[in-house]
């Protein structure tokens, strides 16, 4: 075990995979001597730059993600640093529509093992916050992971690099340098893509979240416990493909669902969780499903506006109170 | 015609036979596919660019062809004609298994990069990435990225040229300049010279007569040799004209038929035939025989493709959208 931040865990996972597999390489803007935006590639240049495996890119996001797609088509395993998720619109054709379709359209003749890292989220950096990942949920063939802590970040980064599909790897800036955890050093430590986890067990309500919203949901659950409400928290970890089984199993027991999202309420990926439960566990619900998510405005600048925008523990608690007031007999 | 490739100079007729075959095959395919698909993007008038650019690439060279010419590009790269035509007809037996239109998306098995969505430009980035992979692996494979005068307006084109230049990647950019983008004439779509753009990105940029197959082929061979030697990218602007409609059933009421007729008089196949006869490579009878062989080959392939099974609902197979950890049977890792 090594005590590491989220950022350090990501970089360690990449370095270890680069040592393990010569096809893994890193490209992006300022990933070289600069060490990556927010230190996202810190130390990789020193170890792998001489081999040409850490490559600084011109400000051409669409084409350098495209170049990563093209290299992946030829068997390489590129890890692209997109810098910020705000740039997603610039690369949606290459990373989404095209890379996501290649395996299926080619009749399985090719796969595109590609990781695209993107920093995002309301946090200490006061900018580049937009959470646009939901756009990609609507594009077949693309995976999306959103770890909430350093341990999962390391295990999911490894899984993403070893995966044979394009994977969007979300790195929340409020979690990036915030605190350290004991992170496994074990060579075989991998967190599988497509598996949620249940960091807190409970029996009255299921709260589904990811990334920073997991942290806030856990804080809310703590407060609720003191009130005598037992909340189960599911950390999705993977947004696509969704771990429907874990969600359905939990909601089948609790009968209540609150979904928490940093993406805005309309069209956000959290709505898929709601749909899955509505379609497959309607008869187990004892209360209407509630969503806790930002309103439909662009991420605001001033801290007070930002605070009003982003769901916090109080908002989650309020939603839980509303669903627990309902008690249709089980 | 370029005398540097005269059979007297090269001592071989094989090259000329192969180039002519690609050109006449392309013309035949236009008719055979067009009869079944009104949206087929024909290549009439531009065959010299296709043959000159697509001939002679190695298996591991990456090729992002122009969509107008994708099937002849795949054929030149060694793909099976019947399978290609089955793909154009959406049959299960096509390389894309009926999941995607093979007229604009060549088989990945032959390292072709297709239009995986209908938007022009991104394949230039994918080709550049193929070249990056070759460089990282220390192989001397090259990537060929072909676009039209229309596609030259995409930022992707300039971004790919810039990236290939700064990374000194083995890419040959070819502008198949047919002077019209659907209905938009070059004068309304392209500012300046595309070859000049290549030069402005710090690479060699050359303009060739796109109706002279030997000029195109000669420029390609030089660019490929430089790329293989690690000397970086080249831009070739091959100026030709789209005698064909944008698609087979195009009414073409947006352009002056006299302009089309004038270019038809400069037909690249007829010009090459005259040269081949003059140089004594083949006589008229031999060329006619090659035309007939191509026609029979293509027609047989198409007849078989048409008889092939069409996909059914089971073939939709949504569970196959993600690549597995280990390849499924019949899939490449």
TrEMBL record, chain A:
- Segments forming domain Transketolase-like pyrimidine-binding: 4-178
Cofactor names from the entry are:
thiamine diphosphate
Task: Tell me yes or no: is Oxidoreductase among this UniProt entry's keywords.
Answer: yes
Say which species the protein is native to.
Answer: Flavimaribacter sediminis
Q: Which UniProt keywords apply?
A: Oxidoreductase, Thiamine pyrophosphate
User: Keyword Oxidoreductase on this protein?
Assistant: yes
Taxonomic classification, please? Bacteria, Pseudomonadati, Pseudomonadota, Alphaproteobacteria, Hyphomicrobiales
Which parts form a coiled-coil structure per UniProt?
none
Q: What is this protein called?
A: Alpha-ketoacid dehydrogenase subunit beta
PANTHER family documented for this protein:
PYRUVATE DEHYDROGENASE E1 COMPONENT BETA SUBUNIT, PYRUVATE DEHYDROGENASE E1 COMPONENT SUBUNIT BETA
Automatic annotation (TrEMBL), chain B:
Which GO BP terms, alphabetically?
pyruvate decarboxylation to acetyl-CoA
Sequence ranges assigned to domain Dehydrogenase E1 component in this UniProt record: 38-312
Q: Keywords in UniProt for this one?
A: Oxidoreductase, Thiamine pyrophosphate
Q: What Pfam families would the database entry show?
A: E1_dh
Which Gene3D superfamilies does this chain map to? 3.40.50.970
Q: Does the keyword Membrane apply?
A: no
- What Gene Ontology terms describe what this protein does at the molecular function level? pyruvate dehydrogenase (acetyl-transferring) activity
Keyword Oxidoreductase annotated: yes
What cofactor is this protein dependent on? thiamine diphosphate
Q: What is this protein called?
A: Thiamine pyrophosphate-dependent dehydrogenase E1 component subunit alpha
* Species whose genome carries this gene: Flavimaribacter sediminis
């Amino acid at each position: 075990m090594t005590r590491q931040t989220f950022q350090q865990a990501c970089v360690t996972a990449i370095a270890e995979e680069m040592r393990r597999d010569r096809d893994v390489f890193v490209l992006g803007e300022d990933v070289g001597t600069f060490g990556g935006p927010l230190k996202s590639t810190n130390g990789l240049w020193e170890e792998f730059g001489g081999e040409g495996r850490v490559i600084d890119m011109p400000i051409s996001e669409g084409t350098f993600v495209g170049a990563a797609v093209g290299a992946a088509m030829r068997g390489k395993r590129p890890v692209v640093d997109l810098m910020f998720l705000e740039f997603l619109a610039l690369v949606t054709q290459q990373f989404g529509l095209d890379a996501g379709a290649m395996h299926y359209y080619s009749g399985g003749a090719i796969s595109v093992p590609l990781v695209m890292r993107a920093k995002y989220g309301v946090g200490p950096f006061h900018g580049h916050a937009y959470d646009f990942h939901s756009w990609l949920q609507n594009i077949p063939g693309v995976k999306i992971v959103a770890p909430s802590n350093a341990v999962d970040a390391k295990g999911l980064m490894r899984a993403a690099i070893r995966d044979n599909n394009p994977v969007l790897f979300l790195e929340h800036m409020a979690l990036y340098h915030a605190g350290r955890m004991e992170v496994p050093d074990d060579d075989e430590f991998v967190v599988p893509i497509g598996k949620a986890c249940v960091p807190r067990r409970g029996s009255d309500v299921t709260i589904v979240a990811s990334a920073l919203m997991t942290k806030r949901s856990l804080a809310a659950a703590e407060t609720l416990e003191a009130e005598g409400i037992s909340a189960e928290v599911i950390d999705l970890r993977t947004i696509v493909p969704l771990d429907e089984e874990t969600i359905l199993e939990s909601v089948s027991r609790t009968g209540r669902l609150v979904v928490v999202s940093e993406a805005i309420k309309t069209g956000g990926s959290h709505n898929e969780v709601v749909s899955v439960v509505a379609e497959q566990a309607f008869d187990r619900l004892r209360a209407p499903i509630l969503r806790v998510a930002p309103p439909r405005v662009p991420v605001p600048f001033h801290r007070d506006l930002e605070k009003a925008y982003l769901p916090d523990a109080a908002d989650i608690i309020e939603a839980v109170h509303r669903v627990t007031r309902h008690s249709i007999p089980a | 015609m370029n005398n540097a490739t005269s059979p007297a100079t090269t001592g071989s007729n094989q090259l000329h036979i192969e180039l002519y075959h690609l050109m006449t095959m392309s013309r035949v395919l236009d008719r055979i596919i067009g009869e079944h698909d009104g949206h087929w993007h024909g290549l009439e008038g531009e065959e010299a660019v296709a043959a000159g650019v697509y001939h002679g690439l190695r298996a591991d060279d990456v090729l992002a062809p122009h969509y107008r010419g994708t099937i002849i590009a795949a054929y030149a790269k060694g793909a099976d004609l019947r399978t290609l035509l089955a793909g154009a007809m959406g049959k299960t037996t096509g390389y894309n298994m009926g999941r995607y239109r093979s007229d604009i998306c060549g088989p990945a098995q032959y390292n072709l990069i297709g239009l995986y969505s209908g938007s022009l430009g991104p394949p230039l980035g994918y080709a550049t990435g193929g070249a990056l992979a070759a460089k990282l692996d220390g192989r001397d494979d090259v990537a060929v990225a072909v676009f039209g005068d229309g596609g030259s307006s995409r930022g992707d084109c300039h971004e790919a040229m810039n990236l290939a230049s700064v990374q000194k990647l083995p890419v040959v950019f070819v502008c198949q300049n047919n002077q019209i983008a659907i209905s938009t004439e070059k004068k309304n779509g392209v500012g300046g010279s595309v070859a000049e753009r290549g030069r402005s990105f710090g690479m060699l940029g050359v303009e060739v007569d796109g109706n002279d197959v030997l000029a195109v082929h000669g420029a390609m061979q030089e660019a490929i040799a430089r790329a293989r030697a690690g000397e970086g990218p080249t831009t070739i602007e091959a100026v030709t004209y789209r005698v064909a409609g944008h698609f087979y059933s195009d009414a073409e009421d947006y352009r002056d038929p006299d302009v089309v007729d004038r270019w038809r008089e400069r037909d690249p196949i007829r010009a090459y035939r005259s040269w081949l006869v003059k140089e004594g490579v083949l006589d008229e009878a031999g060329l006619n025989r090659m035309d007939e062989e191509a026609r029979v080959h293509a027609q047989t392939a198409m007849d078989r493709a048409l008889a092939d099974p069409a996909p059914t609902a089971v073939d939709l197979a949504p569970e196959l959208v993600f690549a597995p950890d280990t390849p499924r049977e019949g899939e490449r890792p």
